[in-house]
User: Which sequence fits this backbone?
């Protein structure tokens, strides 16, 4: 081997090591949570109320709370995000307004989640007087995932061949009809992927709901969107820091449930995206 | 004759307006919907402005009770003592220390991993790696925090023979995991965006793959890599739950990585529950939020500027 | 009679002037061919006839462009109504990823025709006019993407015809096709000019000679010469036209 080849060999070994330093911890985290948590997961655990200061029983209200929150979030964020993306790809001209919108999206994506929490607390809970509730949390989370939904939708809309738009317009369809009948149907899988990724993100966030929704311990199901609610990530935070003598099984079980929920959304999005890519190539 | 009849039928179906003038009634609906779409288009601007507005409105009220000098330069954050003091310095120091630690860990690993993915890995491995890295970014921070408590903190305590494993270092390690996906994805994109000709030209001149990477590709993608690092820093500063759960949260200026530290984010999340609305403490937490938001916004703007410059150079 | 009359048309992409002082009349129910080297502005000109250039940022247009006495660049002109009267077929066949039937029915549906019977009728008639009916009548509900390139292009023509346009713009409609498919389309164009005014951009001079009645020669954004096809190919007035049609160009 020449000196150059040895040099290259060493360099590539180092690069391979850095790759493993990312992959191994990730797989360890997932594996460890599954290994420690799987024993706790049972039908009772996910369908029963917590008992004895959360030290026994199940986590049903936290699961239901998270599902309510996530549904509310996506119902609010999807039309806003898709509309926004339609504006950017189909209507916006290069100019100051567009530049401003892009800057805002990019900055929104970088706003710390706890600041979203402060904002939600100030605007939704107090100023609009919605109170600590599922609705306030969903509104806050909708703002938080908006950049994710916009970016994904925009990418999906951009992937629609320009020739489809031209063909439709040349046939005397209006711009709106073109968007409705040609552009949106084609972009739908991509938009869906974005929505699901947004849902996954919303399901895992803790800091914003800590300030806007969360009930420490509420062993009943929420009655309406104006109710407080427990939520999985917040529940995990509580039982791993605030409750003394917490059985580890419940902690790991809760962590696994949360991770499982987020993974389901993640895998769904990944599968749709890969299928979509394949279909486009064919 | 047959032709004329056919024409008549057609006329019945399609009466093209010979007059090309816009039809007010017809275009009104479309006009309204387009205005609505425009409004949706600027939602992000509205939300971002509202965030700033609400934070400023509530946070600046603090300075009726506390001087700006005390807030910025006092070394004491004692919001619930008899003589409350609101000095943000220890919180800023905590945030900066943990972020610095996280970046020291995640930059070499992240950039190395990005190079591996874009230049070394075979296509199938590449796809698997990308999925794993995206999954890492999808793991909720509270799950990482939980593992930090039950696993990592113990490891840190035993390895460095400390009395407590809840240290800035523990926080830095976990936060580095959260910054990694950002750094890897954006660096990888930057390297991938380089024209194929760069690689071909360098290899054709007899350079090895590694020489091409280090002498041509990395320098050419440097703007993108710098932006990736900036965004990674933004992600690290803004991280809340993980650091709140594993850094011990002592509100004093940390002197080493092996002592407890408290970040701005953790302070807001942990203390908001104890405040009364419109009390001084409540306002102080919003003021901390302003400082935090300004820091992350600046970092984002720099990243955006660098990326834009890179795009222009690319042309 | 002139269907479209253009006078002193100037078009700019930002600072770049793509069309210079174009003056040209397009005769009704004739085929007008636009020829010239690539980048000469012939496609740009074609796309300004149904205002497809509006889709590009930074395009500025000055001059008169009249469709039967109506200036189509007037502020109050409805481009949708315009494009219904001036149909277009693109260089590369671009059927939607929908069924054959839905592709043809797309325009009429947008126009408000909903009953299945009327749509069936329009689809059949348009496909017949585009000489595609016999080949696809048994698989109307199959994806249009399964057709061959030539069939796809005839489908795109049928799709445009379904709108009953008065003018049909064709932007190098055969450049992506093989000779047999090309011949079929050319046959079709000759057939269609009985009913429609056709403007076709082509880079094949033989094609222009075979199918067109009038020919305009474009060079560097200008119309060098416009006349009957016969004259352009046999007795051109301008030296540059002669060089181009005899293949001595550049």
Assistant:
């Amino acid at each position: 081997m020449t000196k150059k080849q040895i040099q290259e060999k060493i360099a590539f070994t180092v690069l391979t090591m850095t790759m493993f330093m990312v992959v191994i911890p990730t797989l360890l985290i997932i594996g460890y949570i599954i290994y420690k948590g799987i024993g706790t997961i049972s039908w009772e655990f996910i369908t029963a109320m917590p008992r004895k200061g959360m030290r026994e029983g199940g986590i049903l209200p936290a699961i239901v709370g998270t599902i309510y929150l996530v549904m509310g979030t996506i119902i609010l964020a999807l039309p806003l995000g898709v509309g926004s993306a339609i504006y950017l790809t189909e209507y916006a001209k290069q100019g100051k307004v567009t530049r401003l919108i892009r800057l805002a999206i990019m900055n929104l994506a970088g706003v710390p989640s706890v600041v979203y929490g402060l904002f939600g607390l100030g605007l939704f809970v107090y100023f609009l007087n919605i109170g600590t509730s599922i609705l306030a949390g969903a509104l806050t989370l909708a703002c938080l995932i908006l950049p994710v939904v916009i970016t994904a939708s925009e990418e999906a809309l951009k992937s629609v061949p320009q020739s489809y738009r031209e063909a439709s317009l040349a046939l005397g369809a209006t711009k709106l009809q073109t968007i409705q009948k040609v552009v949106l149907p084609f972009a739908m899988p991509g938009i869906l992927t974005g929505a699901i990724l947004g849902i996954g993100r919303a399901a895992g966030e803790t800091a914003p709901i800590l300030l806007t929704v969360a009930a420490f311990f509420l062993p009943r199901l929420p009655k309406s969107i104006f109710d407080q609610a427990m939520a999985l990530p917040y529940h995990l935070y509580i039982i791993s820091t605030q409750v003394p003598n917490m059985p580890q099984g419940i902690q790991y079980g809760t962590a696994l449930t949360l991770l499982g929920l987020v993974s389901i959304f993640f895998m769904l999005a990944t599968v749709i995206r890969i299928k979509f890519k394949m279909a486009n190539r064919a | 004759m047959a032709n004329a009849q056919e024409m008549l039928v057609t006329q019945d179906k399609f009466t093209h307006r010979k007059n090309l003038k816009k039809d007010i009634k017809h275009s009104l609906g479309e006009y309204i919907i387009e205005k609505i779409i425009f409004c949706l288009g600027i939602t992000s601007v509205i939300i971002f402005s509202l965030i700033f507005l609400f934070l400023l409105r509530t946070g600046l009220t603090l300075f009726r009770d506390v001087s700006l000098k005390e807030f910025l330069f006092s070394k004491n954050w004692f919001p619930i003592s008899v003589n409350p003091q609101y000095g943000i310095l220890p919180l800023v120091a905590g945030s900066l220390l943990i972020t610095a630690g996280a970046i020291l860990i995640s930059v070499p690993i992240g950039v190395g991993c990005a190079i591996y993915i874009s230049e070394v890995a075979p296509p199938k491995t590449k796809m698997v790696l990308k999925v794993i890295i995206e999954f890492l970014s999808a793991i909720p921070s509270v799950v990482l925090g939980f593992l930090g408590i039950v696993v990592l903190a113990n490891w840190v305590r035993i390895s460095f023979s400390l009395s407590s494993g809840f240290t800035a270092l523990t926080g830095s390690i976990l936060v580095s995991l959260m910054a990694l996906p950002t750094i890897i994805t954006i660096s990888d994109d930057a390297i991938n965006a380089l024209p194929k000709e760069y690689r071909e030209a360098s290899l054709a001149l007899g350079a090895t793959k590694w020489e091409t990477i280090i002498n041509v590709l990395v320098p050419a993608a440097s703007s993108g890599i710098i932006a990736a690092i900036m965004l990674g820093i933004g992600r690290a500063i803004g991280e809340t739950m993980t650091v709140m759960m594993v850094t011990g949260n002592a509100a004093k200026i940390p002197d080493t990585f092996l002592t407890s530290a408290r970040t701005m984010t953790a302070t807001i999340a942990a203390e908001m529950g104890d405040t009364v609305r419109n009390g001084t403490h409540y306002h102080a937490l919003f003021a901390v939020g302003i400082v935090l938001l300004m820091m992350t916004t600046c970092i984002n703007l720099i990243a955006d500027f660098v990326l834009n410059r890179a795009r222009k150079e690319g042309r | 009679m002139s269907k479209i009359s253009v006078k002193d048309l100037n078009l700019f992409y930002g600072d770049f002037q793509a069309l210079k002082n174009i003056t040209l009349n397009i005769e009704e129910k004739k085929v007008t061919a636009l020829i010239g080297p690539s980048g000469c502005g012939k496609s740009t000109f074609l796309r300004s006839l149904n205002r497809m250039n509006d889709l590009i940022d930074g395009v500025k247009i000055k001059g008169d462009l009249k469709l039967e006495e109506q200036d189509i660049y007037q502020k109050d002109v409805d481009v949708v109504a315009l494009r219904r009267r001036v149909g277009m077929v693109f260089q590369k066949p671009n059927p939607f990823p929908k069924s054959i039937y839905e592709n043809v029915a797309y325009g009429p549906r947008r126009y408000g025709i909903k009953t299945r019977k009327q749509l069936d009728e329009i689809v059949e008639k348009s496909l017949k006019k585009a000489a595609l009916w016999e080949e696809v009548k048994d698989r109307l509900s199959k994806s249009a993407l399964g057709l061959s390139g030539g069939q796809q292009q005839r489908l795109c023509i049928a799709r445009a015809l379904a709108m009953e346009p008065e003018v049909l713009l064709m932007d190098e409609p055969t450049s992506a096709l093989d000779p047999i498919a090309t011949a079929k389309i050319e046959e079709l164009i000759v057939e269609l000019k009985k009913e429609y005014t056709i403007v076709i951009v082509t880079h094949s001079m033989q094609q222009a000679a075979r199918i067109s009645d009038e020919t305009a020669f474009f060079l560097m954004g200008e119309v060098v010469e416009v006349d009957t096809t016969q004259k352009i190919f046999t007795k051109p007035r301008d030296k540059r036209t002669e060089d181009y049609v005899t293949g001595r160009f550049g």
User: Anything to note?
Assistant: Chain A has eleven helices and two strands. Chain A touches chain B through 89 residues (CB under 8 Å).
